[in-house]
Amino acid sequence: MSTQASTLHLLQRLHLGTVAWLHSWWRLLHFAVLMFSLALSPSSYGRERRPVLAHHLVADTAPNLAWYGVLSALVSLVLIRIVVVTSQSYGLSRFALEMVVRVLVLELIPLTAAAFVALRTTLPAGLEFSQSRVATASITEAELRDEFFPRVASGIFAVWMLAAVSCVLTLMLAYLSLYGFTPWALPGYTRVVGQVFNPAVTLILVLKIVFFSFAVGLIPMASSFYFGASYRNKVTHGLSDMVRLFAVMLLIEVASLMGNYY
User: Fold this and answer.
1) What is the mean pLDDT of each run of 10 residues along the chain (262 residues)?
2) Residue 57 CB-half CA count within 13 A
3) Rounded distance, CA 211 to CA 111, Å?
C-alpha cells in the first residue's frame, strides 16, 4: 500500500507540475499578445507617452551600448587573432575571414548581446518593478501602456542596437586585423563577406536577433504582470525567469544552427 501511495503521490506531483508549467507558458503567450497589440496601436506612441518611452529606450540602451561595445571589441580582437593564427598554422589562411564572420557575427554576438541586456537590464528591472508594484486584482490598459510597454520595448530595442553595432564593429575589426589600414583589400573582403551572408543566412540572423530580443524583453516583465508585489518569494521569481529566458535563448540558438548548417 505504501508503494502505491507513493506512486500516486508522485503522479499527482508530476501532473500538478506539468499543469503549472503549461500555465506559465500560456501566461507568457498571453502577455506577448497584449504587448504586440499595444505595439501596433498608434495610441501607444501619443504625445503624452513619447517622453516615457524615449526615456526607457535611452536609459536601457546607452549604458549597455558603451560597455558592451568595449567588451565585444576586446573579445573580438582576441578571437580574431586566435582564428587567424590557427588558420595560418594549418595552411588555411584563405578561410580565416569566413570563420571569423561565421563564429563571431553569426553566432556569438547575437547570443552575447541578448544575454548582456538580460543580465544587466531586463531581469533586474523586471524584479525591481514587481517589488515596487502594488498588488491589484486587475491591471488597467493605461498601466499596460505607461508601465509595461515602455519597459518591454526598451529591452527589445537594446538587443537590436547592441547586436547591430557589435556586428558592424566586429566586421571592421576583422578587416583591420587581416589586412591593416589599406583600402585595396576591400573588393576581396566584401566578396567573402557577401558569400557568407547569402539571403538564407541573413534571414536566419535577423530572425534570431528578433526572437532573442522578444525573449529578453517579454519574459521578465510577464512575471511582473501576473505576480507583481503579491509574489512572495522574489529569489525564486528571479531564478525562474532566468532559467526560462535562457532555455528559450538556447532553443533559438539550436534552431538557428540547424538552419545554417543542416
Assistant:
1) 68 76 83 90 84 89 87 89 84 81 88 91 82 60 82 93 92 87 86 89 93 93 68 58 88 90 78
2) 11
3) 11
- Residue tagged 529566458 (cell numbers): 245
Single out the residue of 19, 38, 95, 20 nearest to residue 221, CA to CA. Answer: 38
Cα torsion through 108, 110, 116, 119, rounded to 10: -110
pTM: 0.88
Helix axes 199-226, 149-179, angle to 10 degrees: 150
* Spans of all domains in the chain: 54-261
Of 69, 21, 35, which is closest to residue 151 (Cα–Cα)?
35
Please, how many CA atoms are within 13 Å of residue 156, restricted to the half-sphere of its CB? Answer: 19
Burial bucket for residue 218 (CB in 10 Å: 0-12, 13-18, 19+): buried
